[in-house]
Amino acid sequence: MKGTAVFYGLIAIAIAAIAIALGFYFDDTVRDFVAQHQTPALRSLMRYVSLFGDWPLHTALGLLLLAIAWIRDGKKWTRIFLAMLIAMSLAGVTGNVIKRTIPRPRPSVHTDMRWGGPHFNSKYHSFPSGHVDASTAFFFTLFLANRRIGLACLPIPVLIGLSRMYLGAHYLSDVVCAVVLGILCALLVAHFLFRQIDDQESRIRN
Question: pTM score, two decimals?
Answer without folding.
Answer: 0.90
